[in-house]
Amino acid sequence: MKGSPLQTRKQKLSPKASAAKAARDLAMAKTPARRFKKAQNQRFGQRSDSDIHHTGSGVRRVSIKNNRGNFGKGTKNE
Prior knowledge:
Helix content: 40-55%
Order of helices and strands: HHHEEH
Strand order of the largest sheet: 1-2
Number of helices: 4
Radius of gyration: 16 Å
Number of strands: 2
Structural class: alpha+beta
Distance between the termini: 33 Å
């Protein structure tokens, strides 16, 4: 059985562009703000019934439907 076509689709990049993207992604993942959020997520713990939402005052657990649906505003205008 095949998976979702959206999950299996890869970007079609040249080897040079792919290496540059990997370097950019790694640099972004290692910024102090991103590393702080990752550590915060690990302390908070992930569950399958909710998402972790970062706010200015910390993190909170929200429903998957609300977090991925932009809290009722939809995602078309993001």
